Amino acid sequence: MKTLKDMLAEARQVVPEEGPAEVARRLAAGEKLAIIDVRDPDEYRDGHLEAAANISRGFLEFRVGTAVSDPSTPIVLYCQTGLRSMLAAKALKELGYSTVINLQGGYQKWVQSGLPTVREVPLTADQIQRYSRHFLLPQVGDKGQRKLLRSKVLLIGAGGLGSPTALYLAAAGVGTLGLMDGDVVDITNLQRQVLHTTADIGKPKVESGTRTLRALNPDVNVIPLPTRITVDNVMDVIRDYDLVVDGSDNFETRYLVNDACFLAGKTNVHGSIFQFEGMATVFAPGQGPCYRCLYPTPPPPGLVPS
Q1: Which domain holds residue 17?
Q2: Last residue of a domain, one of 112, 130, 163
Q3: What's the pLDDT tens digit per position in 52-88?
Q4: Which tens digit of pLDDT belongs to each residue from 2-41?
Q5: CB of 36 closer than 8 Å to CB of 75
Q6: Is the pTM of this model over 0.90?
Q7: Cβ neighbours of residue 60 under 8 Å, at least 6 residues apart?
Q8: What does the DSSP 8-state code read for residue 277?
Q9: Same domain for 179 and 100
Q10: Which of 112, 132, 166 is the last residue of a domain?
Q11: Shared-domain flag, residues 18 and 108
Q12: Contact criterion met (CB below 8 Å) for 157 and 249
């Protein structure tokens, strides 16, 4: 009769292991990995890897196809300490999944390594209703909505580009929005800058913008930043955000934001507009060129209308 020790020894003969640092590196590099947490749902809710789908060990063989449709996709399994997932990995190998890896030391070692984890917070009844249309979308769903609620986005500019962007991000449930603008509302802004009203003329844009966004969605933590982005504050300002949206209207700021995002490894979503024409570009570090790569030098002053 085989003991647990015997079964684990057999599994280790066919299942490779990778430590938390290596798995984290591969995820950061954008490798196509399927991460599966084989613990029970209550363990998963208490904390898990953000990229992980939860399929309890007892249901893995029956449900793995819903998470991994292509048997050639690399799969990383983990449990609390790496024992249950080792046996589960062997079972998947026997089912024909070609590349199955066990997370060495499991979730416990991942946490001890200081790597990021996510804890599920139950959605309120109001949130379930508010975001119900997102739950119907396979590209968002429950997991995507929870990720939105955990996300932090910095908006540079609360004007023609920043206003609609801020409204839609707040409506979608992005949990933290930093709203940065050093200007006050002018009457000429009001035909397009929809965060502000006539009563806000002369007031800081971040003041009226914050009030509008909080009224739209109380879930959102709006952080007003009534100042301009400068070389002295840019790194400190962007540090705590997952994503930066650049809605500025001058080249000096665009190059500054680009360079800071490149150095900090932050994704920079850039937009610009003139009359009825506009463009939007996502500059993701390590996944393509940056703004300065496309436009090495700004145009001469006065050449480009604003």
Answers
A1: 4-112
A2: 112
A3: 999 999 999 999 998 898 999 999 999 999 999 999 9
A4: 888 888 899 999 999 999 999 999 998 888 899 999 999 9
A5: yes
A6: no
A7: 36, 38, 88, 91, 92
A8: E
A9: no
A10: 112
A11: yes
A12: yes
